[in-house]
Design goal:
By secondary structure, the chain is mainly alpha-helical. It has helices at 6-26, 30-54, 66-83; strands at residues 60-61, 64-65.
């Protein structure tokens, strides 16, 4: 039920697009794509939860705090790239 929620689906789509763009710009291997995708999803979720918890007023699409979630997603991918896991 939860996975069919429009908020979850849109969040997955946005985070997946971020990971794809990040990989197109800086990625090399399929393993890195998987790493960026997981990191983008976790970062997006963390940013969303933080913004919801603190009641931040930023750019929203429905219940999605786009600015905070996007920033956390991109920061997570940059951090993962720097670690070179």
């Amino acid at each position: 039920m939860l996975l069919r929620s429009p908020v979850v689906i849109l969040s997955l789509v946005i985070a997946t697009l971020y990971a794809a763009v990040f990989h197109l710009l800086w990625g090399k291997t399929l393993r890195e794509l998987l790493l960026y995708w997981v990191t983008a999803l976790l970062g997006f979720a963390a940013g969303q939860m933080l913004a919801s918890r603190l009641s931040w007023r930023d750019i929203n699409i429905g219940e999605i705090h786009l600015l905070a979630a996007s920033a956390a997603s991109w920061l997570g991918m940059v951090f993962a790239r720097r670690l070179k896991v």
